[in-house]
Specification:
67 residues; mainly beta; three-stranded antiparallel beta sheet; two-stranded antiparallel sheet
Length: 67
């Protein structure tokens, strides 16, 4: 599995496709990145599955709350 890659995602705020750099060398992570188009924060959750050699990326808006 590649430890470094880029992933195209759709901004949950404006809908534009942006490229997000991913670093899977530290395992699963939760982080924020700003949209390069609208500058709003994007919440990203990256789950690294070493057994199946996959990376799952979940994208949502920073203002979404789960109760």
């Amino acid at each position: 599995m590649h430890k470094y890659s880029n992933q195209n995602v759709s901004c949950p705020h404006c809908g534009h496709i942006i490229k997000i750099p991913l670093d899977a060398s530290a395992g699963s992570q939760e982080f924020y990145d700003d949209c390069s188009i609208c500058c709003n924060p994007i919440h990203l959750t990256m789950e690294v599955d070493e057994l199946h050699k996959t990376i799952n990326l979940f994208v949502d808006a920073d203002d979404e709350q789960i109760f």
